[in-house]
Amino acid sequence: MNEPLAERVRPKTLEEYVSQTHLVGEQGSLTHQIKKGIIPSLILWGPPGTGKTTLANIIAEESKRPFYVLSAINSGVKDIREVIEKAKQAGGLFTAKNPILFIDEIHRFSKSQQDSLLAAVEKGWVTLIGATTENPSFEVIPALLSRCQVYILNAFGKEDLEQLLERALKKDKQLASKKIELKETEALLRLSGGDGRKLLNIFELVINSEDTDTISVTDELVMKKVQKNTVLYDKTGEQHYDIISAFIKSIRGSDPNAAVYWLARMIEGGEDVKFIARRMLISASEDIGLANPTALVIANTTFQAVATIGYPEARIILSQCAIYLATSAKSNASYMAIGKAQQTVKQTGNLSVPLPLRNAPTKLMKDLGYGDNYQYAHNYDNNFVAAEYLPDELSGSSFYVPGRNQREAALSDFLKKRWKTKYDF
Q1: In this structure, are residues 51 and 21 in contact, taking their beta carbons and an 8 Å threshold?
Q2: Domains and CATH numbers, the chain
Q3: Rounded Cα–Cα distance for residues 60 and 43 (Å)
Q4: Which residues pair with 182 in a beta bridge?
């Protein structure tokens, strides 16, 4: 059997597991639970190749529980019910260690498929472990999400990836039978994109493509071998992130031709239509913002439309939106403003709300001065009065700086006329 390297060296215990120390390190949030065998239903959320499936297997092994696996790609409601019934019989009604049901790519389950899991999770027939590369808040129904803990797995760093390579060289018999010198790793690490499985697959491809058993792995060798084996689009790996990055940067750079090209790459690769639309929705606010507020409306309408219509017709709507966003005026002023404001909050803590701005629903609060001297803007000319709305400690602070575009130039003039010296851009 031609088993891939990533599968051959898959860790079997927590001690062998690489990275994710915030979850399974000495002080990890899951370590104690795994050791005690007290496992809640949980969702493992992280990029591809970060050890979600491996961790689920280790949890089952360490807790000595029956382990059932379903893939959201090829499982329906009938399959779910059959596995749940088997799990109920295997676990029994009086055992503390109920079976684990692992569902890979749980974000691909429809609402009805996710609904079919609710009773089993709530009644404790199974402990659900779901793995997803997508934000569970968007892709997992609220009723199921509320019954699960969400744990985030991080993309592997350089040290993690190098550790995976060293571990593979030591643990794998096929690699050990060759004389392999790992001379350079930069190309391997860059091509992996933080995906451990992809790293090992590329490494194995390079090794197997050599006719000799004495191999010196260099960046030049890796690039030479990998370029001959590049796929059009891998929606579960590095290109999933590289191409969406190129797409958004093309929109930000006001290049509709490039935006449509990268959009076509994703469509042809079978990318999730909602994933593309969601990223355009973010870009409409982050990159365009107040330079053209209509962009957010169009992006939101696009998201709703393509989610209803689906492929192939959704491609036309996606294209229309991408071109609109790319050719729109740009501003990141709103994005920068909230970033500055959040940083200030972290630095200054919970500053008191000025008394004039406080709500005074009771007599006691009124007696304490809540709402005193509040100047109601509509009682003044032009519905404006130059009052202070920030905490005293932040008086005069500026977070929003209008962008250099026609619409925000008008906003800048408006603020300068109203506030005179406060908004001096």
Answers
A1: no
A2: 20-152 (3.40.50.300), 158-229 (1.10.8.60), 238-326 (1.20.272.10)
A3: 15
A4: 217
pLDDT at residue 424, rounded to an integer: 66
- If one counts every other C-beta atom within 10 angstroms of the C-beta of residue 357, the result is 14
What tokens appear for 230 in the block? 């590049």
Helix (H) or strand (E) holding 214: strand 214-217
For range 84-97, the mean pLDDT: 65
> Does residue 72 contact residue 221 with C-beta atoms inside 8 Å?
no
Question: What is the rounded CA–CA span in Å between residue 141 and residue 113?
Answer: 10
The DSSP symbol for 76 reads: -
Instruction: Write down how long the chain is.
Output: 425
- Write down the pLDDT at residue 95: 47
**% helix, strand, coil for the chain, step of 5:** 55, 10, 35
DSSP string, 366-414: HHTTTTTT---GGGSGGG------S-GGGTT-------SSHHHHHHHHH
In this prediction the pTM is 0.60
- Residues whose CB is less than 8 angstroms from the CB of residue 85 and which lie 6 or more positions away in sequence, other chains included: none
Instruction: Report how far residue 195's alpha carbon sits from residue 142's, in angstroms, rounded to the nearest whole number.
Output: 29
Judge if the upstream peptide bond of residue 293 is cis by omega within 30 degrees of 0: no
Q: What is the pLDDT of residue 234?
A: 57
Over residues 61-67, mean pLDDT: 87
Q: Which residue has the tokens 């930000």?
A: 252
